[in-house]
Amino acid sequence: MDERAVRTRVHGAAVEARDPHSGALRWRHTRDGRRPLAVLHARGEAIALWDDGLVTDTDGRRVRWHRALPAAAGWLRAQGGTGVLRPLGRDMLAVVTPSRVTAYRVADGDLRWVLPARQGCAFAPARAVRHSGALLLAQPCAPSAAWTAQLVAVDALGRITPRRRPLGDAVPPGRHGAPTEHPSAEKVVAPPR
User: Residue 41 — φ and ψ, nearest 5°?
Assistant: First the structure.
């Protein structure tokens, strides 16, 4: 049977993968004294968020990579893991905590970018929404802050802003090399008057 044809879930103190047709247990992953808060199925593996702030990627046979979330364990134990693990396309994972958004490449757990919350603000992971290729994040601030400062859009390349320069090593779709002033390869000349 195809290893990708499993249904992953949190069950008690374990992350489990079950056959979607028969319900039979395919594999189970635990960590001594720890409890998984959320699990996300990506690229045939299970990415789990644990109550101590560790994020693990397992294929059921081994843990492929793990990353620790700085200063997140207390908040996770109090709030849970709702909305913390967010896919940014097929190959990128966003981990959203109140203090920062961190993006990892799913294939190997490589850190791709970090976006800290603005001073006086905090991200609200449970209030994030996907729209097209973007993840829209609530970043509540002081009541006097403009609503535009309380919403942040990110994708696999980082924060979406006008005329951004991608932080990653990928070229945005539709662009090949340096941006050109005009889409036509011909020289643009003003029309005669």
Answer: -90, 125
* Spatial CA neighbour of 55 closest among 32, 38, 43: 38
Identify whether 104 is part of a domain. Answer: yes
Contact (Cβ atoms closer than 8 angstroms) between residue 15 and residue 58: yes
Count of domains observed in the chain? 1
CA distances (Å), origin 155, targets 77, 90, 159: 27, 11, 7
Please check whether residue 122 is in contact with residue 139, taking contact to mean a CB–CB distance below 8 angstroms. yes
Is there a domain that residue 58 lies in? yes
Model-level pTM?
0.77
In-domain check, residue 166: no
Q: Which residues of 80-94 are buried (b: 16+ CB within 10 A; e: fewer)?
A: ebebbbbbbeeebbb
Residue-wise pLDDT for 50-102, tens only, equals 999 999 999 888 999 999 998 888 888 888 889 999 999 888 999 999 999 99
Assign residue 70 the CATH number of its domain: 2.130.10.10
Burial class from Cβ neighbours inside 10 Å (0-12, 13-18, 19+) for residue 117 reads: buried
- Structural domain including 33 reads 7-159
